[in-house]
Write a structure and sequence with these properties.
With 170 residues, the chain is mainly alpha-helical. The chain has six helices and two strands, in the order ααββαααα.
């Protein structure tokens, strides 16, 4: 006898392993786009509030960056340097990065950029860590670890680059 497990349990074990493999296969396809959407939505919603028409930053956004938002570092609060420029960069990033993330284009770089933004937001709103920032950071790190997944624009681009790199020279 090569095994101490009774033969009657082997079909059950095969069934369980098959189910686990199916669950894992489906999750591997579905998880990356869900993670990308979950991280993109809060930034996209915020980005929409920053604009007052096409390429026009809202006065409220400028006011917030000039007067309200402060960087909390080592127990002190500091004004943003060049607040109007920072407001424009943030407003642009809060719309552009989520769109890239949803499409799955430059996914890992986009997730890294949103992780860095989350870190800066943490410095502006230090009390938001447990309610929002921890989850955003976890999503960004998960996306960077798992990659874009099969339902992304990164996938066909990666396949095209791989095919091009492995072609033999004429």
């Amino acid at each position: 006898m090569s095994s101490s497990v009774p033969r009657a349990k082997r079909p059950f074990e095969f069934l369980v392993r098959s189910l686990v493999d199916q669950i894992q296969s489906i999750a591997a396809a579905v998880a990356p786009p869900l993670l990308r959407i979950a991280l993109a939505l809060p930034f996209l919603r915020s980005g929409h509030t920053r604009w007052n028409g096409f390429l026009s930053i809202s006065p409220a956004t400028l006011f917030l960056f000039e007067n309200q938002f402060k960087l909390h570092v080592l127990g002190a609060a500091y004004d943003f340097p060049a607040p109007d420029t920072i407001a424009l960069l943030v407003a642009t990033a809060e719309v552009t990065l989520p769109v890239l993330l949803i499409l799955g284009l430059a996914t890992r770089f986009t997730a890294l950029a949103l992780l860095i933004m989350t870190g800066v937001i943490q410095l502006v709103f230090p009390d938001g860590w447990a309610n929002f920032h921890l989850y955003w950071a976890a999503l960004a790190i998960g996306i960077m670890a798992l990659g874009p997944g099969p339902l992304s624009l990164d996938r066909p681009i990666s396949q095209w680059c791989h095919r091009r790199a492995t072609r033999s020279p004429l």
